[in-house]
Amino acid sequence: MEYYDAAGVLVASVTTKVFKILGSVSINSASNPSGSITNTDFALGDADFFFAAIGGAWGSFPTISISGNTISWSNPKSTTWSGTLVYGFW
Length: 90
Prior knowledge:
Blueprint: E1 2-4, E2 10-13, E3 20-28, E4 35-38, E5 47-53, E6 63-67, E7 70-74, E8 82-89
């Protein structure tokens, strides 16, 4: 199965990897500079995340890691940041 756009360009096929979003959380350095979320659905694929910064704090981000079924964030550099952490799997 293949999907094409209006110009006839291939958009997706059966071999295309698609990111499945499991959830999101608003985090910032002031109110929740560190924390974690556990989700057993990480085992369904290759767990991954992205952080969408809000405001003018470009270049300042939390440290984010995934271990097993848990995604964690922290602020080891004591920087100021705010944004949304979106997590899921491929």
